[in-house]
What we know:
TIM Barrel, eight-stranded parallel beta barrel, 14 helices, 8 strands, binds flavin mononucleotide
Amino acid sequence: MKFSSKYFAAPMVGVSDTAFRIMCRKYGAGLTFTEMTYVASLARGIDKVKIDRRREKSVGIQLAGTNLEEIKSAVNFIDRKVDIYDYNLGCPVNKAQRQRVGAILMEDPKLVKKVLSKLVSSTNKPVFAKIRSGFKSSNINYKTIAKIAQDVGCSAVTIHPRTADKKRSGAIFWEHIRDLKDKLNIPVIANGDIFTPEDASYVSKYSNCDYVMLARAAARDPTIFKQCIDFDKKGKYKITDKISLSNEYLSLIEKYPVKFKVAKEHINYFIKYSEYKQITQKINKSKDIKELKSILKK
Ligand SMILES: Cc1cc2nc3c(=O)[nH]c(=O)nc-3n(C[C@H](O)[C@H](O)[C@H](O)COP(=O)(O)O)c2cc1C
């Protein structure tokens, strides 16, 4: 596996659409991921992730779902469009728990073994596993799950080092990344609370990880990848204007349409954490793309 940079764009439901992935790639992501995608829908020939193979280089799909036949059919359906598979063992939301997908599976190592083995044997492409420190604080079992992933032939493990019961806040254990890097022979991808190039550089050095995956920082600013690369090379980086980033996204969705709600959410991510944050209320109230565009005119 070769990547143009060590910084990867994380899978994010409602965020990792085609236009967003194209922007992440343009601004330096070595690998981008689709949002979590159910094998049940792919197996039925439903493609919601809309990868543009001519334009998207180095793109992975993230899968969820444990039906072994559906895993095989899903891979058959999507294989020629993707470079890599990621398997979701980290999603903490209640709906996922009820459906027995995501982080809850970390409580069932035997099932994890079956599912990952099936995925690995269904494709010639690399399979990654995305894990948490554990499902709950009373059972921190990332080493067991990561070792299973390695043993069945996965090519890398991403760890978001906090338990799923803490969702996306609360204590983060970057030492679990370092520990995993020490224990595994396959690459380890660090994820979790890495918001700036300085954070990325710190976590890389501290954990000795192979790659770094960014989620919220990328949603807020897809140029974060370039910032990280520049910081590694030159010790400094530039911040891109968020109005121009917003307009770039809006022009991309003319070709890769998304629901208006999704577009608005993206613009909010960009603007909310910038010097323009006072216009977020106007953005929230906007009714259509035309209105949104006029708010974003400088
Ligand atoms: C809006 C949103 C949607 C997410 N959707 C997914 C998903 O589909 N699959 C997944 O594995 N993780 C998902 N995550 C978790 C991220 O990939 C990542 O593991 C987590 O946010 C920690 O990284 P960060 O601190 O860089 O945000 C999502 C996170 C956010 C903020």
